[in-house]
Design brief:
- The protein is an alpha+beta fold.
- It has a single domain, classed as OB fold (Dihydrolipoamide Acetyltransferase, E2P) (Beta Barrel).
- It is built from 4 helices and 6 strands, in the order H-E-E-H-H-E-H-E-E-E.
- The chain has a 5-stranded mixed beta barrel.
- A hairpin with a 2-residue loop joins strand 5 and strand 6.
- It is globular, with a radius of gyration of 16 Å.
Length: 162
Amino acid sequence: MSLFKYIAVIMLLIASPTQAHHGWGFYATDRPIYLSGKITAVVWRNPHPEIVIDVTTASVPGSLGRLPVPAELRELGFDDILAKTAAPETTGEWTLDLAPINRLMSWGMPREPKVGDEIQAVAFPSCSEKNVSRPALIVIDGIGVRQQSVALPAGCSGRPRG
């Protein structure tokens, strides 16, 4: 195999996982779920940091309406999303694809998440990957951090924006 072909194959292998997670249209934006648990792994890098949480209970708390929701997220219609939020279909480890690091920091992320931290999320499950989701909101250290800055496209549309 020529050096050019070898490099091209390596680039495809590296690019494929990122492509699968990129864009709201790759998530079921019509089926928000509530996830809560302890962080078991953190990959803190761009374009999308990932955290893995151990979800032990598939339920929605009665206090869901008291989550700290940033005003910017409410302006994007988050209250409607919150009203439709359901329990996840499965427990166990869930991967959360977060917004880029610079956005997280400018949106009030108090710090880099660490293994063992408790976290809550209102998220959208992946259209194609089991136990993978993209949150619209995460709550860490009692602080709500939005993950969304655009109107959402139709669920599983494959389009990056609405």
